Hints:
By secondary structure, the chain is mainly alpha-helical. It has one domain. It has 6 helices and no strands. α4 (60-95) packs antiparallel against α6 (106-132). The longest helix is centred in the middle third of the chain and has 36 residues, at 60-95. The radius of gyration is 21 Å and the shape is flat.
Amino acid sequence: MLDLLAFFISCIGIYRLKPVELLKAKQAGEKEPKIKWIMLILGVLCIGAGYYFSLTTQSPLEALMLFFAAVLLVIVGTYFLFITGTTFVLKCLKKNKKYYYNKKHMPAVSGLLFRMKHNAVGLASIAILATGVP
């Protein structure tokens, strides 16, 4: 059922495209990543809620029940913030003209902006696994 739905959505997308756009898209290159504001806000809220649960629980029985919820919230928030938060920070650095147009900073910021588009999930996984190791 889902395969048929994906097939029809793909057919609609192909039908809407024009051959000239496909030829130009090949030469256009990679676009700068966009900030997904909803994901950024959800990431901040998830991490905030996870740490709030972990800091405000008083009884040991309540802590056991809320532990997994807090851990899942922090994990989801970490993924969301690595995916969108790093793009947000790098775009803010790019808007700061005194910082960005320095010959030391410009290649690093522009290179990181495109690399984080592909590597954010892997870095978030490394960060989560590193915090789980005693």
